C-alpha cells in the first residue's frame, strides 16, 4: 500500500550528510552521523510517540520500542537500519524524483552528463510506471541505508496509527558505521532486548539475505636487505620480490575478478614496498567455514616454508577473522528465515535468496547472539552516483515488515 509520509521522510533524510569515515578514531566515526541520529531520527521517533526512545552511547545506536497490541507474549522482533552512508561524495545531496518511469529511457542525473541507462542497469526495466528517485550526478543518493531508516520510521508510524493490528513488542535500532564495518561490533544485544532481528538494508523486492561470506583478513610485513645494486650479488634481499613470490603461490583463478556465485577468493588489496621492506594486505572470503580455514592454513604454510628457506622470519604474518557466514547459525533457527519467507510470499513477492558476496551487520550480530537476516529495502546501484531507489519498492518493504509483525503474533499464539 502507499504510505504518504514515506517519500517526504526519505527526501529529508538523504539531504542530511551522515557519511562515516574509516580513518576516524572517534565512535561513531563522524559527528555528522551522530547528529543525524540524535537530531533527526530520534526527534522523529519521539514526535511519533514511540516508547523508550533513547541514544545508547555504548553502541552508538538510537533505540525505540513499539509496544505490543496483544495480551500474550511472543518472541520480541527487532528491525535495524544503518544511519551512515558509503564512501562517496555526500555533500548537498539533491534528490530527483522521476515519476511514472517508462521502463526504457535513460534518466539524466541532474546537470551532469551521467545517465541511468537501462541497457547498463537492466533492473530499471522492472520499474515501468513507477517512481524512481536518483541523486543529481555529483553525489550518491544515500538510499543505502536511508531507505531502511525511512522504512523503519514509517513502519512504526503505521502501526502506532493502527492499534487494531495485532503484534507483539517490537524493538528498533538505528545503527552507526555499517559502511566501514565497525558499527555492529559495538552493538548492545542485551540492552536491545530482541530475540531475533532483521537488518533492512537490501536490494530489490524479494531479496532475502541469510547467507554471507565467512571472512578473514591478513597482512604481511616483509623485511629485506638493501645494499647498493652494484655489489648486490648474493647480498641483496629484495622485499618487493618476496611479496611477488608470495603472491604467485596463491591460486591465480581465486581472485575477485575471476569468481562469482558461491566461489571464494584471496584478494590483494594493498601492496607497497621498497627493497628494504614491503607490506601486503589481503582479505580472504569463502562461503564455507572449513573452506575459510583451509585458505588460512594455506597462507600459514606458504609463509612458514618461505621463512624456513630464509632461515629467519623475514615475513611476519598477522591474520584475523572478520565475520562468519550467518547461514551456519541460522540453520538452527529456520523459523526466523521462514517468517520472512512467509511474509514475502503473502505479499506476492518472488523470493531471491542468492548468498551475499560480502557481509552484513547481521553476520556479526548473528554470532553475537542476535540472529539477524537482511530484508530488502529497495536499494539499487549502491555506493555511487548511479544509486537510485524506487518508491514502490520502499512501500513493499514497509508492507513486509507489517506482515511480519502480524505473522509473529499469529504464529506464536
Ligand atoms: Zn547498507
SSE order and pairing:
Layout: H1 6-14, H2 31-48, E1 51-56, E2 61-66, E3 77-82, E4 96-98, E5 107-108, E6 115-116, E7 132-134, H3 143-161, E8 170-175, H4 189-192, E9 196-202, E10 208-209, E11 214-223, H5 239-248, E12 265-273, E13 277-286, H6 289-310, E14 315-323, H7 326-330, H8 334-346, H9 361-367, E15 374-376, E16 379-380, E17 388-390, H10 391-411
Parallel strand pairs: 3-8, 3-9, 9-15
Antiparallel strand pairs: 1-2, 2-8, 4-7, 5-6, 7-17, 10-15, 11-13, 11-14, 12-13, 16-17
Bound molecules: zinc ion (ZN).
Explain how this protein is built.
- There is one protein chain.
- The chain has 413 residues and is an alpha+beta fold.
- 31% of the residues lie in helices and 22% in strands.
- The chain contains 10 helices and 17 strands.
- It has helices spanning 6-14, 31-48, 143-161, 189-192, 239-248, 289-310, 326-330, 334-346, 361-367, 391-411; strands spanning 51-56, 61-66, 77-82, 96-98, 107-108, 115-116, 132-134, 170-175, 196-202, 208-209, 214-223, 265-273, 277-286, 315-323, 374-376, 379-380, 388-390.
- The strands form 4 sheets. It has a 7-stranded mixed β-sheet, with helices on one face.
- The protein starts with 5 loop residues before the first helix and ends with a helix.
- Zinc ion binds at residues 82, 144-145, 178, 201.
Amino acid at each position: 500500500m502507499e504510505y504518504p509520509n514515506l517519500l517526504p521522510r526519505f527526501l529529508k533524510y538523504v539531504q542530511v550528510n551522515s557519511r562515516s569515515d574509516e580513518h576516524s578514531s572517534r565512535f561513531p566515526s563522524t559527528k555528522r552521523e551522530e547528529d543525524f541520529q540524535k537530531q533527526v531520527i530520534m526527534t522523529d521517533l519521539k514526535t511519533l510517540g514511540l516508547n523508550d526512545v533513547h541514544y545508547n552511547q555504548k553502541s552508538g545506536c538510537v533505540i525505540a520500542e513499539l509496544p505490543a497490541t496483544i495480551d500474550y507474549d511472543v518472541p520480541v522482533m527487532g528491525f535495524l537500519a544503518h544511519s551512515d552512508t558509503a564512501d562517496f561524495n555526500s555533500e548537498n545531496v539533491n534528490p530527483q524524483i522521476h515519476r511514472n518511469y517508462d521502463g526504457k529511457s535513460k534518466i539524466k542525473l541532474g546537470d551532469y552528463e551521467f545517465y541511468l541507462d537501462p541497457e547498463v542497469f537492466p533492473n530499471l526495466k522492472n520499474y515501468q510506471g513507477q517512481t524512481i528517485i536518483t541523486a543529481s550526478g555529483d553525489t550518491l543518493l544515500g538510499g543505502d541505508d536511508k531507505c531502511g531508516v525511512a522504512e523503519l520510521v514509517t513502519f512504526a508510524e503505521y502501526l502506532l496509527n493502527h492499534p487494531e493490528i495485532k503484534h507483539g513488542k517490537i524493538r528498533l535500532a538505528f545503527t552507526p558505521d555499517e559502511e566501514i564495518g565497525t558499527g555492529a561490533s559495538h552493538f548492545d544485544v542485551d540492552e536491545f532486548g530482541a530475540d531475533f532481528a532483521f537488518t533492512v538494508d537490501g536490494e530489490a523486492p524479494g531479496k532475502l539475505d541469510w547467507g554471507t561470506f565467512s571472512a578473514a583478513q591478513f597482512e604481511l610485513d616483509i623485511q629485506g636487505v638493501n645494499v647498493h645494486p652494484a655489489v648486490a650479488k648474493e647480498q641483496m634481499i629484495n622485499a618487493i620480490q618476496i611479496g611477488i613470490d608470495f603472491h604467485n603461490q596463491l591460486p591465480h583463478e581465486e581472485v575477485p575478478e575471476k569468481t562469482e556465485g558461491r566461489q571464494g577468493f584471496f584478494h590483494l588489496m594493498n601492496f607497497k614496498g621498497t627493497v628494504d621492506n614491503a607490506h601486503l594486505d589481503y582479505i580472504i572470503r569463502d562461503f564455507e567455514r572449513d573452506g575459510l580455514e583451509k585458505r588460512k592454513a594455506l597462507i600459514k604454510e606458504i609463509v612458514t616454508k618461505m621463512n624456513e628457506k630464509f632461515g629467519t622470519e623475514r615475513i611476519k604474518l598477522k591474520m584475523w577473522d572478520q565475520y562468519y557466514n550467518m547461514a551456519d547459525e541460522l540453520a538452527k533457527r529456520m523459523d526466523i528465515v521462514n517468517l520472512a519467507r512467509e511474509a514475502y510470499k503473502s505479499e506476492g513477492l518472488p523470493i531471491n535468496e542468492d548468498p551475499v558476496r560480502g557481509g552484513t551487520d547481521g553476520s556479526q550480530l548473528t554470532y553475537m547472539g542476535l540472529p539477524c537476516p537482511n530484508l530488502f529495502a529497495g536499494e539499487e546501484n549502491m555506493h555511487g552516483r548511479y544509486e537510485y531507489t524506487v518508491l514502490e519498492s520502499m512501500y513493499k518493504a514497509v508492507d513486509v515488515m507489517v506482515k511480519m509483525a502480524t505473522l509473529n503474533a499469529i504464529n506464536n499464539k
